[in-house]
Amino acid sequence: MKTLQSKSRHGMPVASLALLLCACFALPSQAQDLTGRLASIKARNTIVLGYRESSVPYSYYDNNEQVIGYSHDIAQEIVKELKSALNAPNLQVKMIAVNAQNRIPLIQNGTIDLECGGTTNNKERAQQVDFSNTISVTETRLLTKANSDIHSFKDLNGKTVAVTAGTTSERYLRSYVQQKNANITIIASRDHSASFLTLETGRAAAFFMDADVLASERATSRNPQDYVVTGEPQTHEAIACMLPKGEPGFKAIVDRTIARVETSGQGETLYKTWFMSPIAPKGINLNLPMSDALKAVFQHPNDQPMDD
């Protein structure tokens, strides 16, 4: 027996027309969202990650020059989510080293898609790039030699202070010197290791930077007991991943990944691994307990800066 089918006034069977319409409206939202950087990542089947070479414990080299660290682990979770969201199980990852001076330009000019290092999210930078949900919270302090008699900013008069160039710490220190008319000489070095070397060799009396950076430089030095992190915190800063400005689809994937990591307990495990346990390559332990500010972020993930 021949099955009878009703036809629309255009001659197409009604059932077929209904299926076609359903298919159109049922297109996955991810397919509709593939514009801008997401479309570019999908087309080249590659995401380019910016990383830091010596930002312990966020992003740095192990003894085999493989990138490891707290931020790098979070970046890997984001890559996994992108593979699923883009339906690109074989998505390739290209790694490009960045520093404090070039990381923002490399995001802006499209050289890298995402940077997860130890970058501070602040209002000024947010005019140039977008930031993910906060992944860590730090505060700026001083690293000095234990016998230096430097215990606060008031003790820096007539002294030379090292700071890493291109960081919010450098900007704050220069502003402090100008506003207070302070007698402080500033040496800005290319990276954290160079800044610490300036302190180690006596060319500077203190190194001003994020407390976690200072703790890592102290812990990896030849004689950690010779140095102390001191001084009242000058700023509190939200650390986040950077991505291109005006890419809401891309940012949504990054943010939801970080929110999942932080609210599921995985974030706390990662923090303990990198901040409260011996880490490669030398087995140092930063012994930096999670702050109340970061605990609050993990409970309610957000992308807000902490400009003081």
TrEMBL record:
UniProt keywords, alphabetically: Signal, Transport
SMART domains: PBPb
Gene3D superfamilies: Periplasmic binding protein-like II (3.40.190.10)
Domain Solute-binding protein family 3/N-terminal: 46-278
GO CC terms in record: extracellular region; outer membrane-bounded periplasmic space
Signal sequence, renumbered to the chain: 1-31
Superkingdom of source: Bacteria
Name of one Pfam family that matches: SBP_bac_3
GO biological process terms, semicolon-separated: amino acid transport
Family classification: Belongs to the bacterial solute-binding protein 3 family.
Protein name as it appears in the record: Glutamate/aspartate import solute-binding protein
